[in-house]
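Good morning C.,

I know you're traveling, so I'll keep this short. The sequence:
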Amino acid sequence: MSLSLKQESCLLSIIIVNYNTRNLLRDCLLSIRQNVHPGEHEVIVVDNNSRDGSLMMLKSDFQEVILISNDENLGFGKACNQGIIRSGGKYLLLLNSDTRILPGALEKMLNFLENHPGVGISGGKMLFPNGSIIPSVKPFPTYSNLLRTTRSSLFNHIIGYNALLPERRPPETTSEVEAIAGGYLFIRREALLHTGLMDERFFMYMEDVDLALRMRKSGWKTVFYPSSEVTHILEGTSSKYKSRSYFYHHMSLFKYFNKHFKNRFFLNYLLFAGLIGHYCLWLILKVFISPERK
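The tokens, ready to paste straight into the viewer:
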């Protein structure tokens, strides 16, 4: 999808996609309000037809927020694109509604990006509320690493997720990486001219990895910058709709391989069968063994 740019009107556009996360969104917006410089930023909330009072809360308490209200749930990638097209920032921050901006986080990241013009994508350190670090860097998926590097893999849950995913542990110092999770993702507007917008075939998940791969092919770097920190509650839309979210993740994985390895037809449809089987097994375990996780 091509990008039609407005004239830059501010330094940073913060874009939040919301779907029935009113209370989390309120706290996220309050943390932004406490940690930005007036006139240097704008906040855009793209609401995917929430039914929990999110719109009323935004109109009442956050009149400075630019609101895009959809009549249906368009998915994460398409909603992000709506926000990007509406935005005027030199830099774009795709931010999950279940995050909290920590003091100095935005200023540190913007200073970093201003001083490193070759960086197309960057992300900072995401922390659980208890202060432990969330695995937030990602390798590009391949047929050989999929079971080992995918967070949703049952294999990793059986063997031990943290032990099997060194590639997903955030580096301690500023480092170039392959991809960064989309919960706290900065994008240089200029770089989107070369890559285009989020690929809307991904309803949820993998759009961040796909964008990072396209950035790399266009000569832009993806860099993890640990000095910029946010808290990630991990209680957003995905946690509320686990079965649906898990299904979208599996379908997005297949779409990713079908897009970037399109000449490997036989392998891709073996992968499709494996993903369907993996999802069905997860669903059986969830319903019959762990009913509390429904």
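Safe travels,
E.
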